[in-house]
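Researcher: I'm preparing a figure for a lab meeting and need a structural model of a single chain. I don't have an experimental structure, so a prediction will have to do for now. The sequence is pasted below. Please return the structure as tokens so I can convert it later.
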Amino acid sequence: MAGQAHRARHDPPLLRAVQAGAAPAGLHPHPHRLRSRAHPPQAARRQGPAGCAEAALDQEIAATLAALPDPRSVTSAPSPPSGTSFATDLLARLDEIPGVGPTSARVILAEVGPDMGIFPTPAHLASWAKLCPRTIQSGAKGTTGPAGKGNAWLKGALGEAASAAARTDTFLGARYRRLVKRRGHAKALVAVARSILVIVWHLIDDPQARYQELGPDWHQRHLNPQCKTRDLVRQLEHLGHHVTLAPTSAA
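Model: Understood. Here is the structure written out token by token.
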């Protein structure tokens, strides 16, 4: 049948017969559909050995999360709401971060861990994850270099979350759009990934903390007029203009 379909594409009379619907016996009227019909539906493919292995792996992950102990159980830390485990409550709070979904939240929790006692500050966690700029000093000259490899699984999950957050109308999306203009796409994504990791540190460290959206206009509402004026004057002088500032008269 495949040979006949190939022959039909190079035989004009046979091709016209196929297009008219009068295909000869043994030749499919639409050869280009043979490949798509040869594959079973996705649901049927998931019922095979691979689907069973995936279901078993999901059950193992759920059991591991349910048995995850709370590192603050020996202290007076508040317990999660009744009916939910420590990991379930933590994953639900991580899922509130823009760009972070259930799968990426599990990966982040698995790689970072539930205890932030080993990272005194968010900067320590960002440094361990290699999401902070590296300074290269040579004499009096200093330059920035690549941040480093770090944990591939953690950086992959944070990269996907940052890419998703960059397309949202949120504080993280506005942060990406502000940085991409002067730093480029890659560095802007790294900065957003670092911001997400800082939020993760606070959510894990404080069991009562929840993500609060600041809004895409946060930077405009907290704009420093002196800094903005200085930047605009510097840009005009760089273009060859002489700038003289005069205050406006009070209304």
